[in-house]
């Protein structure tokens, strides 16, 4: 086992910008990666961003300019909630060891002023073996240590059997190693305290950034066509929704001649993709895509969206203003999408059908209802990416300017 295929990219550690070390692990779909890359692209305007990607990077995905991506040996999550190596060269144990070495080597090489870790320790417990050594290394830096922040979505999973124990462990780790938690939500929609309830209060500061919308041009001039768009994020767990949607399309075409576009997603299993292709041949009015580079433009040109309810999907829905039906992904202890969907429905932003209640008849009826549905304009803060950059910049500035001048010079970044 070596660094042959996974090594630190060449480059100079010193930079006119403060160095920000961004760790992101997506194990099931691609929602975490999409949000993290959106944040990284905005952060790169003020920081030299070194992006550690821990999952399989989609083949058709385009990395934002201005950030340096280091791909760790990719790990994914199987249907039975177990990690597995996505690189056939390495076993799971070997991948863990190599990842830990790469993370620490990258930290030593770049000497970042900021460490930005997505989700851990509120989630990603299975990755503690590579993150705790990094956090301990930051402690050993003394006064010159980097500031450490956790990046969180709006709602945490809150249905574990040992939820209090889990939350207590997360609180202890945050208070010991982190300088703050950035929640990418509007507290009017969901506060951290609603889904995170340790037995002792969190001491670390919590900052609400607002939601992180996808970057891109305004969609105000887009023309909508009477057609349905069906999607499921990366597609890894989208097959049940797609199967019902294709059956519903046969009914919709017969009643309304309503076209449907189905975007399978890059992570849909190949066997399921081949089956969808075979079914689409005899399904009238159906256009099938494996993957599209920009979902937001499709949403802006369609009249109805049917999807799951991941964070990034919701951000696309909000930005496009499309009438939407969501079928929240819910398996085992996963209740995050269901909680998000209920809140959005209460705000009049979309409609919801539970996954275990989805049927062809219900989907057809809901789509017919959405033809006359107009989402309410939500008074939610949607500037989360820029706000995140502002918060981190201001906290780093405050941290450095309180150091003696010789210590400020040692950081490589001086604020005046």
From TrEMBL:
<feature type="domain" description="Glycosyl transferase family 28 C-terminal">
    <location>
        <begin position="288"/>
        <end position="373"/>
    </location>
</feature>
<dbReference type="InterPro" id="IPR007235">
    <property type="entry name" value="Glyco_trans_28_C"/>
</dbReference>
<keyword id="KW-0808">Transferase</keyword>
<dbReference type="Pfam" id="PF04101">
    <property type="entry name" value="Glyco_tran_28_C"/>
</dbReference>
<protein>
    <submittedName>
        <fullName>Putative glycosyl transferase</fullName>
    </submittedName>
</protein>
<dbReference type="GO" id="GO:0016758">
    <property type="term" value="F:hexosyltransferase activity"/>
</dbReference>
